[in-house]
Specification:
The structure is a single chain. The protein folds into two domains: 175 residues, no CATH class; 208 residues, no CATH class. The chain is built from eleven helices and 16 strands. The chain is an alpha+beta fold. It starts with a strand and ends with a helix. Helix 1 crosses helix 4. The longest helix has 35 residues.
Length: 399
């Protein structure tokens, strides 16, 4: 299996300058390759330029501009061209599926923050010895950069990436390792119901509070955004204001990740099988379609967009998608089983008699079956139905 590791680095002032130049030059290569594709399609009878054609030109590009392109790793530049090729592949795939994607765009210097090295030892080197207290990573054109390795890297390092986040620099590794030993079996199974009032509720009655990190930081973010709006473009004050807004967003993102990791780890340690609702989160946070007034052209009727916007913010703030991704990754490492079930009517079905009706849930928290009179917490009922559906699906799968 492949596992990723992310470590903070401590580059010197000169190394920070070199890393910034590396990002700038790879960004220039990305934009130049994108421009070539656009020009070839527009002016050369809709000719398509592929990755292989652009990769074959790298040798000439490096010889023509040795100061900016020739100093960096050839493999990392190939990885940058592959990134552009993947963007076009995703663009055409979404068009074929009937979507309306945006055409791949040029990247600004401040929007190009990662350089990939496809192989350890080719333009980069992970230098970590078991008894060496100081870990370093070497990048071609930069030198040996100190790394704060807070946990050991298990397995053979395959790829290395350098990433800029604000004023900090990180190194991201992927390591190939054998399947780890699964956790001891607990004999426990659980269903989870994700929501807004509670982040999740388990079928055995447990509740995990919704931390609402985005809402707690909303006041500071609004103040920082107002200060940014008052700044003159390309001024030093604006650069500082942009950094302030980015720092606040980064803190919220890291808080969400921390909460998701801890919640997922608790579930993995306590249960062998975890069932959850297969929610279509992207569809849930879509804005409602406008309602044209049939009697007055150019005028639109109220469509509840303001109320829906508040719900969308709450769903995005909860971070269900991030949590489920982390849950699946931890379950794979621990030998646990995670099952997705159809979310339809999970909160409207009575667990006692099986009666399905919208009236069974009169309020957000209360469940009262109109057929048999069963009463319980609505989220617990939903989690119980999720667990029942997950176990039924598990039994129906062929061995």
């Amino acid at each position: 299996m492949i596992r990723a590791y992310k470590f903070l680095t401590w580059p010197t002032t000169g190394q920070q300058v070199a890393l910034g130049e590396m990002l700038r030059d790879h960004c220039s290569l990305y934009n130049g390759a994108l421009q070539e594709r656009r020009d070839a399609y527009r002016h050369a009878s809709k000719t398509s330029v592929k990755y292989g054609m652009q990769s074959a030109q790298l040798k000439e590009i490096r010889a023509f501009d040795p100061e900016r392109q020739g100093r960096w790793s050839f493999s990392s530049q190939q990885a940058t061209l592959r990134r552009l090729d993947k963007a076009f592949a995703a663009f055409f795939r979404r068009i074929k599926s009937g979507e309306s994607p945006g055409y791949p765009r040029f990247r600004g210097v401040n929007w190009f923050d990662t350089v990939d090295f496809p192989k350890d030892g080719d333009g980069c080197r992970w230098d970590s010895a078991p008894n060496d207290p100081q870990t370093r990573v070497r990048f071609q054109g930069v030198g040996h950069v100190k790394v704060k390795q807070h946990r050991p890297v298990v397995g053979r390092v395959k790829t290395i990436s350098v990433k800029r986040e604000g004023k900090r620099w990180y190194v991201v590794l992927t390591a190939e390792q054998s399947q780890p030993e699964p956790l001891p079996m607990t004999g426990s199974v659980v269903g989870i119901d994700m929501g807004i009032a509670s982040f999740l509720t388990t079928s055995n009655g447990g509740h995990v509070d919704n931390p609402r990190h985005g809402r707690k930081a909303a006041a500071k973010l609004e103040a920082a955004q107002r200060a940014l709006a008052r700044c003159k473009r390309r001024s030093k004050r604006r650069i500082k204001a942009v950094a302030r807004v980015a720092t606040l967003h980064r803190k919220v993102r890291r808080q969400r990740l921390d909460h998701a990791h801890k919640t997922a780890l608790d579930l993995i340690r306590e249960h062998d099988v975890i069932a959850y609702e297969d929610l279509k989160i992207r569809n849930m946070i879509k804005a409602p379609a406008p309602k044209p007034d049939p009697e007055t052209p150019g005028v639109f009727l109220p469509n509840g967009a303001a109320a829906k916007a508040g719900l969308n913010r709450s769903i995005a703030d909860a971070g269900w998608g991030v949590f489920l991704t982390i849950l699946h990754a931890k379950a794979e490492s621990a030998g646990r089983e995670v099952i997705a079930v159809d979310p339809r009517n999970t909160s409207r079905t009575c667990p006692e008699c099986g009666h399905v009706a919208a009236e069974n849930r009169p309020t957000q928290e209360k469940f009262h079956c109109v057929s048999c009179g069963h009463q319980a917490h609505a989220d617990v009922v939903g989690a119980s139905n999720v667990l029942r559906a997950g176990l039924a699906r598990r039994e129906a799968q062929p061995a």
